[in-house]
Amino acid sequence: MKPPIWLWFLLPLTTLLWSGQAVFSAYAHYRRAVAAAQVLEREVEALTKSLPGALSEAPVKEGELPQLYEALVRLAEAQGLALKNLRPQEVAQVGEARAWSLEITLEGPYPGVLAYLEALPQVPAPLWVERYRLAPVAETRGERLTLELALRILAP
Fold it and tell me: At CA 125, angle to CA 123 and CA 129, rounded to 5?
């Protein structure tokens, strides 16, 4: 038995419609990806505009570092924090800028730690926090915290 002639036209038409549906589906995915990329680009622009002006400030020379360290320690003491460790490190390349590294460990109550972190941007030097770790002191049932900061200070 021979298939009817209209079946020979229906089979390619069905294949064409199925392929067209796949193309439209891929186009819809493409449009969603473009919209997501545009959202990300807007976020990047907003972050770039809101970056602190640290990189536009004058860099800190090696001779000025002790005064900066002293200012950071005085700020910690003013917030009721105790200095546990202060480890200055060598200058390193960070992207297109050069920066001094400083690791500082402080211990104190939560309000003092919070006040220190809030006051850190007022330090008169181009610095930023590279990483931090906040942990409760074991014997104090969480009443005292240990704050470990890794700071970067813009270098010439």
Answer: 75
SS3 letters for the chain? CCCCHHHHHHHHHHHHHHHHHHHHHHHHHHHHHHHHHHHHHHHHHHHHHHCCHHHHCCCCCHHHHHHHHHHHHHHHHHCCCEEEEEEEEEEEEECCEEEEEEEEEEEEEHHHHHHHHHHHHHCCCCEEEEEEEEEECHHHCCCEEEEEEEEEEEEC
- For residues 104 and 72, is the Cβ–Cβ distance under 8 A? yes
**Tokens representing residue 62 in the block:** 């090696």
Q: What is the pLDDT of residues 60-99, one digit of tens each?
A: 888 888 999 999 999 999 999 999 999 998 888 877 778 8
**pTM exceeding 0.70:** no
- Using alpha carbons only, give the angle 35, 39, 45 rounded to the nearest 5 degrees: 140
CA distance 30 to 15: 23
Residue 50 tokens read as 């809101």
